Amino acid sequence: MEKLKIGFIGLGRMGANMVYNLLDKKYEVVVYNRTKEKMDEPVKAGAVGAASISELVKLLPEKKVVWLMVNAGEALDAVLAELTPLLKEGDIVVDGGNSYYKDSQKRYADLKKLGISYMDCGTSGGMGGARHGACLMIGGDKENFEYIKKVFKDLAQEDAFAYLGNSGAGHYVKMVHNGIEYGMMSALAEGFEAIKDSPLNIDLKEVSKVYSHGSIVESKLMSWLAEAFNEEGYLESISGNVPKGETEEEMKKLLSEHTMPSLENALKVRADSRTTPTYTGKLISAMRNKFGGHKVNKEGK
């Protein structure tokens, strides 16, 4: 099957890396970003730059596939308000961001009235995953999943993508994934703070090394934490005040639907760190920065 020509809107930390991944696999990719400078490197790498969303749509073939990597909420709705009138029946929009699943279901219903298909795709793996193979959780109409299945396969690591059901299923599974991630990050950070506060003068860098190789808690998160310990001056520069993340409001919605004590505690740890910075907060900030390039607050500022 001939590879699809894809439109890609949103070239932030994840979006740009996903475009590079597609270009590596010889896809034609038309890109647009509101901040034009973020288009420069993808265009140098071989993408076709569009001056506007309208131009992006015009540069795509008859049946259009447009992938969105835009912040959930108002920013995404603004893009959709501009994009949707330019599409026609049979076209496909993929939302690869962290949208709340009920919002995705509403957008699906709104676009379906126009004959446009809306796929929700939870995307995990951090910037490295976006560049070299992400984990993709997909919801929407099965026939449209089948139509662009090769794109999902080429963007993902082996066995790291799945069609999970009707509209909202992909973003629902990603929401729960984020809740698990919050709990895991807190558990790791709290454990290292306990070791730090022990009377035994244990080298945390050495602990991070052994935890990262063969232990039950070995994981990508643990590897990113070990990376933070090994980067000279990195942890010392980071405050124990965890900046508020894009998904925290979504996590509160998840807690309104399910009892998840680990997630509830993880949210409290982050919120408390904003009034009383902690070593646990420092390590959570470091992990978030390492996998997703998320902002950190600097020590002393």
What this model shows, in words?
- The structure is a single chain.
- The protein is an alpha/beta fold and 301 residues long.
- It is 51% helix and 15% strand.
- Strands 3-2-1-4-5-6-7-8 form an eight-stranded mixed beta sheet, sandwiched between helices.
Q: What is the structure about, briefly put?
A:
With 301 residues, the protein is an alpha/beta fold. It is 51% helix and 15% strand.
Ordered list of secondary-structure elements with their pairings:
Blueprint: E1 5-9, H1 13-24, E2 28-32, H2 40-44, E3 48-49, H3 53-58, E4 65-68, H4 74-83, E5 92-95, H5 101-112, E6 117-124, H6 126-132, E7 134-139, H7 142-147, H8 149-155, E8 156-165, H9 169-196, H10 204-211, H11 220-230, H12 234-237, H13 248-257, H14 261-273, H15 279-292
Parallel strand pairs: 1-2, 1-4, 2-3, 4-5, 5-6, 7-8
Antiparallel strand pairs: 6-7
